[in-house]
Amino acid sequence: MERQTMIMVRSGVLAVGLSFIMYWIAASSTLFIVPLLFFAPRFQSSRWALLPVGAVALLLTGYQMIGFGGVQIDGSVIGALTVGLYMPISLLAGAGIWIGLQGRGMLVKLLAGSLFAALFGMGLVLWLSGGSQSALATEDLYRQMVSVMVPSLLEGQLPLGMDEAILFETVVTVLKLGFLPIFIGQFGLSVMISELLIHRAEWSFQDRMAQWTLPENSVWVFLGSWTIVLVTLLVDMTIVESVAWNIALSCTLLYMVQGISILAALVRRRNPGATATRIFVLSFLLVLLPGVNVIPLLALPLLGVSETWIGYRKKA
Question: What's the pLDDT score for residue 153?
């Protein structure tokens, strides 16, 4: 067996094995596509690199179906399986598209990789909002699961005086209005980790991280989507509301990343030895810090949007 073939076989086995293990472990399940993205450059072509992605997709589907073993298969079970597979299948589809578009820009690959998740998610929203028998049965099944799981997880004390019904409706609303930014957040973080590992010895990648930016015309998508969101607060348009919120929040997330990139560029201008990675990590931690995170959640996207008119990173 040729050396290159052995490298590809070993890389494929490692990618599939590590990916499945990371999915199986709850703490790392949201990042399970990182091994697939990391090992992809070791294959001779992107076509060969897609084989591990397909293998993991089959494994995860089988794993999910085994979880329903002994349960009578009906509309609610199929619906629950479909909803449960939304995120892992969308992440795998995104990883496959990212690998297949090797050589294209990161933003192009990110948006293309998010297309499947957008269509799949919107299809689920339309189906669940349609009021069909299978949709209602699936909703009832998840309602029962929440009523059983939440009290044990929260020790019987629900937040803000909520009851189980209100909590369930809140979760459903958040998912309907934010399934796409949730996906982009997970997919983007996985991509970033894999790219940092791949380019860990390249200082030039730190320079590129400090120059990440959206096209200037993106600001119109940002402003337009938030305008439609405001309209849906006054006029009841369920589907339009879901589309508008998902686009608006996704744009806000991307502009937040641009805001962090601006901070990295400004810090590195004063301190060339600082890494953009450190700035990104500190910013992400600040966003996750309760009580304080309101400031960066508002300031970072606004910083990114304002670069449309203010050239923060232009050299004097």
Answer: 63
